[in-house]
Amino acid sequence: MADERATVAAVFREEHGRLLAALARRFGDLDLAEEAASEAVEAALAHWPAHGVPPNPGAWLMTTARRKAVDRLRRDRTHTARLAQLRVEAERAEPPAPEGGLPDDRLQLFFTCAHPALAEEDRGALTLRCLAGLTTPEVARAYLVPVETMAKRITRAKRKIRDARIPFRVPDADELPARLPGVLQVLYSIFTEGYAASSGPHLQRLDLAEEAIRLITVLAGLLSDREVIGLRALMLLVHARRAARTTPDGLPVLLEHQDRGAWDRAMIEEGLALLPQALAGPPGPYGVQAAIAALHDEAADITTTDWPQVVALYDVLHVLVPSPVIAVNRAAAIAMRDGPAAGLALLDDLADDPRLRRHHPYLAARADLLARLGRTPEAIAAYRLALDHAATEPDRALFQARLDALKD
Amino acid sequence: MRSALVKYMLLINAGSVDAGGGAAECTVEDWVVYDKAVKDAGIFVSGESLADLVTATAVRVAADGTRVVTDGPFAETREVLGGFYVIDVPDLDVALDWAARCPGALGSGSVVVRPIAEF
Asked: Of A15 and A339, which is predicted with more confidence?
């Protein structure tokens, strides 16, 4: 039984997004789609151990789920009008299935889950729930919130989709430039949440970063777009460094101190191979960030990194996305190209920006440059400030270690 | 379970107003053009614009049945409900498109889109 359960779980996770997307499109109701999908899994658990796993498990689940949904609608008398409409639709031919598989409606679901009318904090959770097939407790664990809190958020988001009638559809070509960045932002925030946990004891939560890569890979298969490719390249080029980013006891290791031999070469190659496509045309912010990540990944160490090129790319990025966080990274790159004094001058120019006052990477970058310039008392004060605003235990430990080293 | 169309109310919050009491960022002509577009599209259910806020009167009834009538309320926030449309469209994306075209969404104004509850 345990084996079958594992098979069903694996198949279900693989097919969940597809199943849910097809049901949601057909029935226009995410809740009904989820219920039907989970009833189909229950049926599989009861059926497969006795009769064996069917040759096309995805299609089996889809047929069963569809039947369950119709049963459910039939039980609920308020849905009779809808049922009549469904019968009419059923008479029309099903759309042809790609590569002999099931029709793929996941692209619609990506846009629905990332809809700007949903609360920003709910979009990632909903995407993980619906498209990555994570359970609500898994999503809660990923975001380090209690299960009930996450369940409420997901329910709220689904209710809004249903009651405000957020459509299941891919935006038209003319709306796409306005809507696609929202989808990419959701996937990127899932990735960065996994990459540098915004709070809590662990710096890296590998599973979320890997979920994000899985999702962007699915999206890239559904939609041909330079920025989709750029974001996929960026994720691979950054995630390739995962093994070197922390010490065995979980302390963060800065890029300059990382053991580059521990970087995942195969993943770097995969990311590099995507760059020409991502950068073919006017650059987008993800393509440019991927290009920056590639320059780091290709360098043997920090002294042979092509810093002039890194700075040039940050100049481009800062025009595309004029954010103070990018200005901080740009200043750090200029410090590497022109020396710490030049970088510090730029950071000090940003000191009045209220968005950076509590931004610990800014505070730490400033402390680092002061230390490099031998302005030890100021560096100590700056690290203390960074320590006050560090969000994770590992960051706190890192700043404390730097502080201790300066005091010696 | 879902009818073909949903009614949405577009609540038009006026931002800053000019000396004549009109919205600072759009002209009467803008509203005439928009109103005509809504009606020509066949989605118009109802719509009104409200008289100036100084004409508003609030009524509250206490637990003992006492009626309390007060002048106002006056704007404590910058945004004041200035009018509304009810439109009948297929989904939220279409409703948001009409909200975005509304002159009341310009500048310091905003349009809040709310589905009408179906019972």
From this structure: A339
Contact across the interface for B92 and A166, Cβ inside 8 Å: yes
- Tell me what pLDDT residue A12 has: 73
Check residue B113 and give its pLDDT: 97
> Domain limits of chain A?
2-100
In chain B, residues with a C-beta closer than 8 Å to the C-beta of A115 are 92
**pLDDT given at position A93:** 41
Categorise residue A294: left if φ over 0, alpha if ψ from -120 to 50, beta otherwise.
alpha
pLDDT, mean of residues A218-232 = 95
Q: Is A159 on the interface with B (CB under 8 A)?
A: no
- Among the ranges given (A186-195, A245-254, B16-25, B99-108), the one the predictor scored with the smallest mean pLDDT: B16-25
A142-160: per-residue pLDDT in tens?
A: 888 899 999 999 999 999 9
Query: Residues of A with CB below 8 A from B115's CB?
Result: 163-165
Best probe of the B interface among A23, A72, A115, A165, by most B CBs < 10 A, is: A165
Chain A: residue whose CA lies nearest to B113? A164
The domain spans of chain B are 6-115
- CB contact under 8 Å between A165 and B115, yes or no, is yes
* pLDDT class of A338 with cuts at 50, 70, 90: very high
ipTM: 0.83
Q: Tell me, which fold does domain A2-100 have in CATH?
A: Rna Polymerase Sigma Factor; Chain: A (1.10.1740)
Pick from B1, B6, B92: which is nearest to A117 by CB? B92
From the list A29, A81, A167, the residue facing B91 with the nearest CB is A167
**How distant is the Cα of A170 from the closest Cα of chain B, in angstroms?**
11
Which pLDDT score is estimated for A329?
94
Q: Do A29 and B91 touch (CB under 8 A)?
A: no
CA distance A217 to chain B (A): 27
- What is the residue-averaged pLDDT of chain A? 87
Does position A95 have pLDDT exceeding 50, yes or no?
no
Residues in chain A closer than 8 A to B113 (CB atoms): 164
Nearest to B92 among A28, A29, A167 (CB): A167
CATH level 2 (architecture), domain B6-115: 2-Layer Sandwich (3.30)
